[in-house]
Amino acid sequence: MTYTLHQGDALGVMSRLPDDSVDALITDPPYNSGGRTSKERVSRTARDKYTSGTVNTLADFPGDQKDQRAYTRWLAEILTEGYRVTRPQGLAVVFCDWRQGPATSDALQMAGWLWSGTLSWIKPACRPRKGGFRQSCEYMFWGVKGSLDSSRDLYLPGHFTGSQPRKGRVHITQKPVELMRDLVRVCVPGGTVLDPFTGSGSTGVAALLEGRQFVGIEVTPHYWQIADTRLAEVERDLASRPSDPPVQEDTTAATAPAST
Amino acid sequence: MTYTLHQGDALGVMSRLPDDSVDALITDPPYNSGGRTSKERVSRTARDKYTSGTVNTLADFPGDQKDQRAYTRWLAEILTEGYRVTRPQGLAVVFCDWRQGPATSDALQMAGWLWSGTLSWIKPACRPRKGGFRQSCEYMFWGVKGSLDSSRDLYLPGHFTGSQPRKGRVHITQKPVELMRDLVRVCVPGGTVLDPFTGSGSTGVAALLEGRQFVGIEVTPHYWQIADTRLAEVERDLASRPSDPPVQEDTTAATAPAST
DNA sequence: TACTGGTATGAATCGGATA
DNA sequence: GTATCCGATTCATACCAGT
């Protein structure tokens, strides 16, 4: 399995990708949430918003200063390009937090996707909230270009449990590879997964491990470099194996069942 | 603990309840989803939509034939009345399925509530979906009238696991009492929980068991009768106990931890 | 290796001080 | 009065070191 990692702006790079060239769009855009007021949301860096009260040395990431309306329109543009680039019957899976759920489903549908469901990612280790309910989930909104390929012998879970990586974490919003391995299975075996917000590259790592090809885009040179290093290492490991992973439909779960 | 159960239309009955008279609004309105097209939504009864493929003899319920826009406006009216009836710092918890998430958060905010989070209810036993992700969650959107009472020593989970009751189920959308017992704890001990769509009365049963009072509204005489019978029985059981439940803040979980 | 106990941390939130 | 900044807070879990 091979990967391509572009360095540049998501919209700009995507506009140069050919029609119908990928099988699935799986991505985690900057949420542009965090903060009590619109002013607080747009006037602080992602790091200030999402890591306040704790100490860490992770690099900041850009693109997290939009208000609700701008966020919806921007995400719709991204997903519109993603729609063009994805082949018919391909899928999109978009991460969001609770605040951006409505904006995300709007953008997904504005871009032409048939919104087909919402997945929950349960994070067992999250901060408590005094006087109310903690926010222990992030969400993935998914949609289809056209209609679902019901001829595939594929049955995926509707919720996932897993903690953010703690050891060896390099990005503020890094996802567990196990979670991403479950998600990339919506892409046909041997097909191509696109992630226009690659970050540290967990989507790509999962894609390669599951026998899918990967096309990534990352705007920050810092994270582009990190992702490239991770992906190259996975590719090398896989190449040194005696045989390639199977390319037929994999009906068994990549990881243990989602709920413990 | 005592309960009051009105028989009548939710809006009509609520309009006659006094201001600031309840501490929490916890309810599961008719979802008005179930169907990809507006035609599919309005041309089938609730029972046809939510129980296809199985045979059951549960009674149908009304109020499930609105399109998205009408649903949002209708729910906003309900929640506006609920806002008036709820005291400052009181909470609202509203169930919805994935399709109605955006409409629900819109209605909640249109009614004046400060949308403060989204909870996931994980249903382990749900239908698989060929070629994609199953839909294993329902959601609860919650909000506050004013600001959260951060002086309460209360920390509630952000997700819940539980299957719909099988044995002794009397309503199509009946909730597990264990789930509802966790939810009613947002109401101060000894306070009052309002549920304008009482159905078979699980919210009320949970409220009484957790030492909260209950005000319910149910339009269908059939379900009003069922709820009244259930609630009366719980009230009788509690009265025959040697002592009442404690009225101080209960910091321990009512049930086992949410996951697993 | 399996278990135990100690420690650190999280896409946070909020009130109140400061500018 | 408004916008911004600062710091205290909380629990479940993951990780680590030691037995």
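Helices of chain A lie at 10-14, 38-43, 46-50, 68-85, 101-110, 177-183, 202-209, 221-239.
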